[in-house]
Amino acid sequence: MDIGAQLKSMLTFWDRLETAQQEKLKKSAVVRRFQRGETFHRGSETCSGLYIVMSGQVRVYLLSESGREITLYRLFERDLCLFSASCIMSDVQFDVYVQAEKDTEAILIPTAVYEWLMDHSIHVARYTNSLMASRFSDVMWLLEQIMFKSFDSRLSAFLMEQSIIEQSADLYLTHEEIARHLGTAREVVTRMLNYFQSEGLVSLARGVIHLKDTDRLDQLAK
Predict the structure, then answer these.
(1) What is the DSSP letter of 102?
(2) How far is CA 50 from CA 20, 123, 199, 201, 202, in A?
(3) Residue among 128, 102, 125 at smallest CA distance from 50
(4) In which order are the strands placed within the sheet that holds 208-211?
(5) Residues 85, 50: contact at Cβ < 8 Å?
(6) SS (H, E, C) 30-98
(7) pLDDT at site 94
(8) Max CA pair span of the chain
């Protein structure tokens, strides 16, 4: 694999770097592979660097003291995981966790190298600030959903989003997995899914949820 070519195709600021900066980046970047379900960033315990997703799917989530999870956002091919290097952002006061939802291959840029690039390239600094603003917009959007939307609407939106991601009306998810995404208890998810089934919106089987009426689910999500 030509890691330089990969970086060039994935980093919008690559062509604005000086040759020495490009070489430093190429020499330090490494490819990492993670299996489905593997958590490879655990809050303040790790600050390994920035990951650029080459293939697979990643979720970034919060973990409460009681052990409850809630997904902040997902990352897909060509997305950059900024919070895995949160130690370079002094204003970030919360711990995030990063988990591979599917088998994932990513390029790791070590924290020290990326921090050096930010100090020596205004283009990298601007890109990072823009990306940070985008991620915090995702977090604020999630907060708005939790505060102002009913759970049936949130669950419908999640099911529709998952259907788009998987390009299928059959979602192979457990109720516990959905609860972790939405930051609630499994029992709450089960009750709402059973209600959806009684209304003809979905059909439930062991380990799979079939979306029967996507038009009504979409209306409920909105």
Answers:
(1) S
(2) 20, 16, 45, 40, 39
(3) 128
(4) 170-171, 208-211, 202-205
(5) yes
(6) EEEEECCCCEEEEHHHCCCEEEEEEECCEEEEEECCCCCEEEEEEECCCCEECHHHHHHCCCCCCCCEE
(7) 67
(8) 63
Q: Running DSSP on this structure, what letter comes out for residue 204?
A: E
Query: Which tokens is 9 given?
Result: 């195709």
**Residue pLDDT, tens place only, 170-188:** 999 999 999 999 999 999 9
Whole-angstrom Cα distance, residue 219 to residue 198? 17
- Evaluate the CA torsion angle 174, 180, 185, 188 in order and state its sign: negative
Cα(19)–Cα(14) distance, rounded to whole angstroms? Answer: 10
Please say if the pLDDT value at position 167 is more than 70: yes
Query: What pLDDT score does 171 carry?
Result: 96
CA 65 to chain CA centroid, Å, is: 21
3-state secondary structure of 207: coil
Helix (H, G, I), strand (E, B) or coil at 110: strand
Q: Which two tokens stand for residue 162?
A: 């998952």
Q: What is the mean pLDDT of residues 82-101?
A: 75
Q: Name residues whose C-beta falls within 8 Å of residue 184's C-beta, 6 or more positions apart in sequence.
A: 68, 151
Tell me the pLDDT tens digit for each residue of 58-90: 999 998 888 889 999 999 999 998 877 666 665
From the list 47, 33, 180, the residue with the least C-alpha distance to 103 is 33
